Each structure stands twice: as C-alpha cells, then as structure tokens.
Amino acid sequence: MITTLTNGTLTVTVSSKGAEMQSLTANGIDYLWNGDPAYWSGRSPVLFPIVGGLRGGRATSAAGEVTTPKHGFVRQSELTLVESDDTHAVYRLDASDETHAVYPYDFSLRVRFELTGEQTVRVTYEVENTGDTVMPFCIGGHPGFRVPLTGDDCFEDYVLEFEKAETLDCPQVDQVQVLIENRVRNRVLTENDTLPLNHVMFRGDALIFDQLESRVIRLKSGKTGHGVEMDFHSFPFVAVWTTTADSPFVCLEPWTGMCTRVTEDDVFEHKIGMKELPAGETATYSYTLTVF
Q1: Tens of pLDDT, residues 22-55
Q2: CATH number of the domain that 135 lies in?
Q3: What count of Cα atoms within 13 Å lies in the side-chain half-sphere of residue 283?
Q4: 12, 46, 92, 180: which could form a disulfide with 74 (CB 3.0–4.6 Å)?
Q5: Residue 234 and residue 258: Cα distance in Å, rounded?
Q6: Looking at the 3D structure of the chain, how many domains does it have?
Q7: Rounded to an integer, what distance in angstroms lies between the CA atom of residue 257 and that of residue 255?
Q8: pTM greater than 0.90
Q9: Distance CA 206, CA 5 (A)
C-alpha cells in the first residue's frame, strides 16, 4: 500500500513494505532514486536491527544466535500504517515468530514521516524494547538520490558539502568478506568542506565517515544548484554509497552502527555503535531531508 503526503510544494510517497519512501518530489524533480534493479532495487530502506552484515552471517547474543540478513529484515517486511493525514504517516512493525527466528528479541519499531517545512521531510525511528531483557540493536537510513537530477548535468558535476571543513580518512571495506578493514584508512579529503564526486572513488564500496564533525551534509550539483541536504544529528556515522557499476544515484546513509569490523569478535553486543536498550524503554533517532 502506498501513502501520499503533500503540503502543496513537497510530495512524498511511502510504501507499507519496509516503510520505504518511493518518491520525494518538489521543484518539478523527483529527487529519490527510482529503484531500477539494473543498478539497485532499493530506494530508501530502513536498516534494523543491524547496519551492514555479520561475519559469516551470524553472531551470538545474550538471548541466542542472531542470523539477520545484511541491513536487517525491515526492508522485506510489511509494516502497519497506524497514523496518517496529509502531512504525516506512522508505520509499525512488531516482533513475531518470523523475526524471532533471526533476531531473538521483542521490539516494536515505529517509522514516522513528517513534512516539517516547505521542502523538508523528517524521518524518525522509534525503537521500543517490549521484552524483559536488555535489547541490543543498530538502526539506520539508506535513502538514495538520483545523480544526475536533471538532463542538464552529469555525475561528475556533483559534490558533497559539509557544514565544517573536514579531514576525512575512511576505513577500507574488505569486499571479499564484506567486513570493514578498520586498520586501513584512506584519505579522501583534507581540511576542506567540499568533496567532488566521481565513480572511481566508489570502486572500493561505500565511503564511511566514522570521524565526521559535521552533522549536516549536502549532495549538490555545482552546475544546476539542485540537490538535497541531510541533517543527521541523531546519528554518529554517515556513509555515502553507490554501486561499482557507475550507477546514476548516490545514497546518504545515517547510521548508529556499522558492518562488522575485522578486529571485532562475533558477539552481537560488541559491535561498534550497538545500543543496549533496557526493557520497557524507547530510543528515538531522526534525520531530515531538505530538497532544493
């Protein structure tokens, strides 16, 4: 089921499958990636209860074995629409026998979309521990944006703009094991607030910014001026990704955790950024997207 939100300027559509945005339209432009499976079938999946993958696809935890697939199971789940009006919608997913088979914890996840400004949407994740034991989890967003946005520019016209000048050393991704080789870091920016994009820089997979000072990032065409701004103050990490196949999109991904690092063990609670939520408590994270 598709739900449409609009304020007359910005229109957002969301699918109940995965609580995944399907479009983000303003200024006569649909900014969101269209899910073309020739490149990447996703558009804006929700990542829970893990960001990235586990070594060998499994980990131990206090409640039992965790075998959730890469980026978790929400993106393949049907969520229930529990609230909606013209400018907001809330979806919910509760623990079930199916989720217990891969993640042995009780939870209630609510994903909220709100049009908070003329051209801004806020995405909020509310994670409630409905069990009686401490619940470890990570959560993240994965919205992809069309690059180029119009027929008047090309991929290489786009830049990332940071709110502060940054020196960025990204951990390398081991593409064989699909783990983060955090002992090897590659310099991508030195004391600058602007990073020009090209396809070659993604040959080694995502650029993972785990030491970023900025909490606002812009993906922008230097030629047309169009783009999208993400404010991700709730999240300690952000990644920028596109496929190695010279794809016409770029994802901006706010994360609370990340893929297993080669120096980590296989205990779920030990993963970097893991939140351990006490029974009965709720944790909330949000980011905003402003298009221009």
Answers
A1: 999 999 999 999 999 999 999 999 999 999 999 9
A2: 2.70.98.10
A3: 22
A4: 46
A5: 15
A6: 1
A7: 5
A8: yes
A9: 31
